[in-house]
Amino acid sequence: MVDEKSLEELKKKALSEIKEAEDEKGLEAARVKFLGRKGELTRILKSIAQLPPELKPVIGRLANQIKKELEAALKEAQQELKKKKESRLPGVDLTLPGRPYPLGKLHPITQVMTELCEIFLRMGFSIATGPEVELDYYNFEALNIPPDHPARDMQATFYLTDKVLLRTHTSPIQIRTMEREKPPLRIIAPGKVYRCDSDVTHTPMFHQIEGLMVDRDVSFADLKGVLSVFAREIFGEETRVRFRPSYFPFTEPSVEMDISCVICGGEGCRVCGQTGWLEILGAGMVHPNVFRAVGYDPEQWVGFAFGLGVERITMLKFGIDDIRLFYENHLRFLEQF
Ligand code: PHE
């Protein structure tokens, strides 16, 4: 038999189903379920006639009141749905997730450049910079390369005038820094450099990081130590290094550093030309003439310097075989790093 309590419960259930209906179909289902011809409330209303006389008025009034409330709730819910539908723009579903924006990233050269700088920063070097349009004096003369010296042929130079050029290496930064600052000194000079060269391993513009350490008792052992640590940090713990005699006008003695081939591990392959070794940088003890040019006393100060090409390191690190890919700006290439 119906009582007030079960009627109230029925009302609660009906109201919550109306509220939860997501569309017109759901709303209609709720209406039929409670107010339809065989609906739960309709059935109760029909059965009131059989109730004992003293209950009839109470239950009858309550049931009719609930019926009105439910009808009002249905109407309101219908209007809500209509409003929601109208607020949608034609053909646009605002409930869809947004289109993701492609995330940009740093160019592989920038990434490796940063990584290289961080390695030297951790070893106590600080960063120095300088102009890309440089005087012949800083690019060559102060580095112990006088005019007409055959060593100038080592770097095919873009001249702007007789005395002004695009720097061919970042070594002029070292001269400028030494002119400005007193030793001891520990700097790296990262930046763009320019040479009149273009093939699978050369672009007219590329990046270098050069380093310079000057103190009273710097030795060749320090050079080997710093560069060995650097090689292992960038190419992995198992990397071996070797130093071969070489020539640069601004260092004496001069060396070239090789690392065990990153592709074959030293067995010999196409990349290392079957030698098991890859040349990665030039270095040496600073030539006394370079110290004289900046006013350092070569009897009191010693130093080592090194210079490396960032493109070459990046190519070896990622197994890239054509340097020009870095500057063609194809996203399919760049997105891989
Ligand atoms: N400046 C040299 C170059 O660009 C690299 C180098 C720097 C070599 C310092 C020795 C010492 O080729």
UniProtKB/TrEMBL annotation:
Gene3D superfamilies: Bira Bifunctional Protein, Domain 2. Binds 2 magnesium ions per tetramer. It catalyses: tRNA(Phe) + L-phenylalanine + ATP = L-phenylalanyl-tRNA(Phe) + AMP + diphosphate + H(+). It is found in: Cytoplasm. Residues 110-316 form the Aminoacyl-transfer RNA synthetases class-II family profile domain. One of its GO terms (molecular function) is ATP binding. GO terms for cellular component: cytoplasm. Its cofactor is Mg(2+). CDD domains: PheRS_alpha_core. SUPFAM superfamilies: Class II aaRS and biotin synthetases (SSF55681), tRNA-binding arm (SSF46589). Transmembrane segments: none annotated. It is an enzyme of class 6 (ligase). One of its GO terms (biological process) is phenylalanyl-tRNA aminoacylation. Its main location: cytoplasm. Keywords: Aminoacyl-tRNA synthetase, ATP-binding, Coiled coil, Cytoplasm, Ligase, Magnesium, Metal-binding, Nucleotide-binding, Protein biosynthesis. The keyword Protein biosynthesis applies. Its EC number is 6.1.1.20. Mg(2+) binds at residue 252. InterPro entries: aa-tRNA-synth_II (IPR006195), aa-tRNA-synth_II/BPL/LPL (IPR045864), Phe-tRNA-synth_IIc_asu (IPR004529), Phe-tRNA_ligase_II_N (IPR004188), Phe_tRNA_ligase_alpha1_bac (IPR022911), Phenylalanyl-tRNA_Synthase (IPR002319), tRNA-bd_arm (IPR010978). Residues 60-87 form a coiled coil. Tetramer of two alpha and two beta subunits. Belongs to the class-II aminoacyl-tRNA synthetase family. Phe-tRNA synthetase alpha subunit type 1 subfamily. This is Phenylalanine--tRNA ligase alpha subunit. It comes from Thermodesulfatator atlanticus.
